[in-house]
Amino acid sequence: MAATPTGTGRTATGGSTGAGGRAATRVPTGRQWWLEFRAATRTEPGRLRLISAALVLLVLVSGASVTWQVSQRRDTVTNVTDHSQPLSTDAAEIYRYLADADATAASGFLAGGEEPRTTRNRYDLSIREASNRLVKAASNSTPGSAGEREITLLSRELPFYTGLVETARANNRQGLPLGGAYLRHASKRMRDKLLPAAERLHDVETARLQRDYDDAEAFPWLALGCGVVALGGLLWVQRRLYRRTNRVFNVGLVAASGGVVVLLLWTSVGHLVARQHLRESNANAARSLGVLSEAQIAALKARGDENLTLVARGSGEAHERSYQDEMASLSTGTRDAAPLLDEALRLADDDRGRTAVEQARTGLAQWKERHTAARAKDDGGDYDDAVALVIGGEDQRGRQVTETTGKSFDMVSDRLKEAVALEKKQLRRAARDADDAYTGLPVGGAAVALLAAGAVVRGVGQRRAEYR
Length: 468
Description:
Blueprint (H helix, E strand, L loop, with lengths): L29 H12 L2 H68 L5 H24 L5 H28 L4 H40 L3 H25 L5 H61 L5 H15 L8 H8 L3 H29 L3 H9 L1 E2 L5 E2 L3 H32 L4 H25 L3
């Protein structure tokens, strides 16, 4: 009898055997896999298995896309309220504090000698607040961006400006006329370099804020498209089963279809509600904030020009013209734009905001009347009386002047600050309402999709069981 070879042999079915004689597992090639797949699809149970897998995949993709896109929208809404909107506001505040510092420095200079403590404290506060907001903006800026370049310029120029102001003060305390030249040079540096850089920074941050609004308002087309495809697939399968079995309803597939419809409606309605709140926030509160910020800046510029006109002692025609231009932008408008305070009043959406703006308009009218009286004194040679009408103090007769342009300016400035604070609250409230419209949708959408997928498996599984 011949000996059996100890090497690997072949089984009767063509498979290979190992040393122990057991058949090894055969790994199908790509062609074999395709042949087996085709064989499976030639039977109705095999087709139903594939149909079930495809429907489950469609439903799960629909739920995942809802969760992903809605989460993105919520993150963008949060970014509007916690990042881009505060940064845009901070950029406007940088401009406002710089302009306020410039106007306050001129007021302190007019007082002569040792400036009042309240004036010095206000100047120091404005410089400190501008510096703090620059630090905050720098920490949130993108390296190499336009915003970072403007922040770098502001951080470099601000110490030069404050140094010039301190030199002007030192000369003024000694009664040296050179102090006025230093102050005018400091103000020119502020207006030629710092304020334009602050304005460009505000433009950059405002553009970023608008992009965030656009992203948050974008319709979740992917989520809705996947939902429509999943619903279409479910309806097609139910029609196919009806034509083959004459059964009108398959409970599992009907439940899955209902779940997908709920998902589509929840996503659509939630986004439409959130979008409406965002549009109200953008069109009303954000736009109103922009107009109010422009009004604040115009008032500060006008105040600075008013003071510098007196500092120049007879050669301040350019500052007086600038004052008139800023006041015109506030009260009478220009050829290209409506008066800022009128526009702010139109955009105010509650009684408190409207009252604040109306009081600012009253203060502005009073300011213009007092400025006219101060200019008449200065043009008539009564310089000390003109200064008293602008910053307060005693006139030439020793009478205390309290009804000053500075008091009117403070009224305008304070009422505009109040209106800005109210609009900020409105903006945050609208953004919170937008976020609330998405409450529960990311998690709820995933849960509905999972339940719908389970209903598909059960519904198709019942049909497959009939073939056993």
